[in-house]
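Section 5: illustrative case.
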């Protein structure tokens, strides 16, 4: 799988190669879990954007979401972001919610949006898993969730549930997040549980070296100058 990599992705060759290999495995029917962790500004979202573009070229189904502090209190907020666009495209939803996925249909009814309360039960997680299986039966899938440090706990539980059963599915999970202290923080503890899975491949992008940072600043300055000149 080829990445259309802009020159600004300096010193990210190893990360791009790892993402490329993960998407290739998913397209071959071998589920893969990829995590990108790092502080703000280190380039997590840029790497995720590259994987998104490559998945599009490979005609993978893209399911994407981004965590938000404002939406964190709502149960299954990330799950809804991931799946609602696909669910809404199929009138009647008979195919996607076939078999064990049936109970998941309730989660996509607007008035079912819930505030935190009882933890997500097995039925909800299991039916969402089968919904994902039904989607992946049609084409390989990239599940891309950015800013998972603000993901709601029920969505994180589902991502863990899916990760535990991803082998043999044409699904790549790519999750990004900031490092957090898991002590006393349930969502951070759930993220740590994902990262500790034996099948997980975790990437920790380093800040750019001084020469790379200088080269990037020079390139952006030249691009800005060119844009200004084009307007005159």
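Designed sequence:
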């Amino acid at each position: 799988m080829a990445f259309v990599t802009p020159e600004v992705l300096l010193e990210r060759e190893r990360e791009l190669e790892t993402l490329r290999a993960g998407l290739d495995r998913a397209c071959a029917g071998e589920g893969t879990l990829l995590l990108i962790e790092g502080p703000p500004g280190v380039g997590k979202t840029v790497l995720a954007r590259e994987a998104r573009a490559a998945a599009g070229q490979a005609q993978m189904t893209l399911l994407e979401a981004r965590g938000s502090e404002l939406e964190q209190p709502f149960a299954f907020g990330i799950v809804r972001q991931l799946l609602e666009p696909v669910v809404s495209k199929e009138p009647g939803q008979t195919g996607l919610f076939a078999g064990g996925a049936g109970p998941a249909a309730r989660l996509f009814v607007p008035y079912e949006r819930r505030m935190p309360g009882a933890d997500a039960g097995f039925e909800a997680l299991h039916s969402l898993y089968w919904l994902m299986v039904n989607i992946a039966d049609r084409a390989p899938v990239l599940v891309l969730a950015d800013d998972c440090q603000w993901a709601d706990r029920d969505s994180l539980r589902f991502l863990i549930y899916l990760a535990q059963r991803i082998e043999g599915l044409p699904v790549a999970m790519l999750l990004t997040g900031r490092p957090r202290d898991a002590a006393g923080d349930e969502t951070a503890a759930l993220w740590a549980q994902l990262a500790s899975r034996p099948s997980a491949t975790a990437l920790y992008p380093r800040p750019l070296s001084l020469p790379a940072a200088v080269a990037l600043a020079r390139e952006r300055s030249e691009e800005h100058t060119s844009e200004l000149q084009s307007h005159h």
